Amino acid sequence: MSNLEQLTLAEMEEFVATSRHVTWSAVEPGSVYRLVERVLKAQPYRRLSQGQRAIVKRFLAKITALSRAPLTRLIRRWMDTRRIARKPARHPSFHRRYSDADIASLAEVDAAHEDLSGPAVRHLMETREKCGRVDPIKQRHHPSKGYRWLLLRSVKSAAYLKRGPSIEK
Question: Closest Cα partner for 129 from 117, 137, 121, 119?
Answer without folding.
Answer: 137
